[in-house]
Amino acid sequence: MLMRLSHDIGLYFYDIVIARFDLWAAFGVLAQFVFGARFIVQWIASEKAEKSVIPMGFWFLSIAGGLMTMVYGFARRDIVIILPQTLSIFIYVRNLMLIAKERRRKAETELPT
Asked: What are the TM regions of this chain, as residue ranges (predicted)?
């Protein structure tokens, strides 16, 4: 039984990593790396500040990785990928809008009168 299971697992990974790997799969993997890089950017910024912060780069990598993943979802015709990425991208853009609004408000209050 264990021999059969290990053989089946080996065939499964061969199928997804070798047999089905194509240009779109490579693009999808790259998209996940871009998306995942945002956590490294956030971690480095937090370590430097010695507190939890979310830098602008986090949001830009979120948008880039989300868009790439959404393109991958469209190419694969996978609604399970398309729908959540669409919502997520909206949230990332909205966060950038809120940050810009806060910066404008702060700049207006800091102007010498």
From this structure: 23-41, 53-75, 81-100
pTM over 0.85: no
Token pair of 106 as six digits = 């702060």
Mean pLDDT computed over 62-78: 95
**For residue 51, what is the DSSP state?**
S
The DSSP code for 111 is S
Sorted by sequence, the CB contacts under 8 Å of residue 45 that are 6+ apart come out as: 53, 54, 55, 57, 58
Q: How far apart are CA 27 and CA 21, in angstroms?
A: 10
Cβ atoms of 89 and 67 closer than 8 Å: yes
Q: Give the C-alpha separation, 40 to 65, whole Å.
A: 14
Q: Domain-by-domain residue ranges, the chain?
A: 23-110
Specify the pLDDT at position 51. 93
The helix-helix angle for 79-110 and 56-76 (nearest 10°) equals 160
